[in-house]
Amino acid sequence: MELRVLRYFLTVAREESITGAAKVLNVTQPTLSKQLMDLEEELGKKLLIRGNRRITLTEEGMLLRKRAQEIMELVDKTKSEIGNADEVISGDIYIGGGETDAMRLIAKLVKKLQVEHPHIQYHLYSGNAEDVMERLDKGLLDFGVIIGAANIQKYDYLRLPAKDTWGLLMKENSPLAVLDNIRPENLRDIPLLCSRQALAGNELSGWLREDSEKLNIVATYNLIYNAALMVEEGIGYALCLDKLVNTTSITDLCFKPLEPRLEASLNLVWKKYQVFSKAAEKFVNILQQKSNL
Predict the structure, then answer these.
(1) What is the pLDDT of residues 164-212, one digit of tens each?
(2) What's this model's pTM, rounded to 2 decimal places?
(3) 204-263 pLDDT, tens per residue?
(4) Read out DSSP for the chain?
């Protein structure tokens, strides 16, 4: 499989047309069609469904599109790292992370590096721990900010000097809004929205104790933004981390911390034996030197 052909395939998938893709790629339509047929023959699978008006992808085609996008991202990242391997520190740093206020710490470090090394560019990817670690393993990210008790043993990591606090997001007119703190018994029989990562990692089970089996979980979420919209519509209460949703006077939402207090640790992780670009190496070296960002 040639990289050039993968780019052809991705362009056809995006344009949904051989004719349109040929114009974008500045190649003839017969040449492009032949390259795609050769690719299908090489893989032994039909990748494209050639309709009258547009081209769609088969199941195998959708898988190839996902993998081809990852391959091209990695190729572009590698070219950037090699091309910038000179005395001037420049290049790209790829950072992934979940929704956490600790990203402010990363932002402060980026600000410092921006002053000292203005030619570095930063690329942020948002996702849960599973998403971030998958992209780390594939080399698509340099670093990941991981919240809570995710499996980080296979990575090198630094514990960030910050913690996130668990609590309950609710409407201001909810019955529980009068409480200063939320105890396990307060969650019985109320509709809850809970993070899939927290449930899978049992991050709340120790705090809930025997009450964990009595929860009425009406929905799970990956990132909190959409879950907050459901809270606003009165679907339920969301177990989440603090400082991720606007609870100022311009909204009708409020956040109440859990009691006993439950905190999530935060770690910056990267692959073991990682060969860093000069930009990424400078980033992690400064972070290691700073006990307080």
Answers:
(1) 899 999 999 999 999 999 999 999 889 999 988 777 667 787 888 766 6
(2) 0.66
(3) 878 887 666 778 999 999 888 889 999 999 999 999 999 888 787 677 899 999 999 998
(4) --HHHHHHHHHHHHHT-HHHHHHHHT--HHHHHHHHHHHHHHHTS--EEE-SS-EEE-HHHHHHHHHHHHHHHHHHHHHHHHHT-SSS--EEEEEEE-S-TTHHHHHHHHHHHHHH-TTEEEEEEE--HHHHHHHHHTTS-SEEEEESS---TTEEEEEEEEEEEEEEEEETTSGGGG-SSB-GGGGTTSEEEEEHHHHHTTTTHHHHGGGGGG-EEEEEESSHHHHHHHHHTTS-EEEEETTSS--STTSSEEEEEBSS--EEEEEEEEETT----HHHHHHHHHHHH-S--
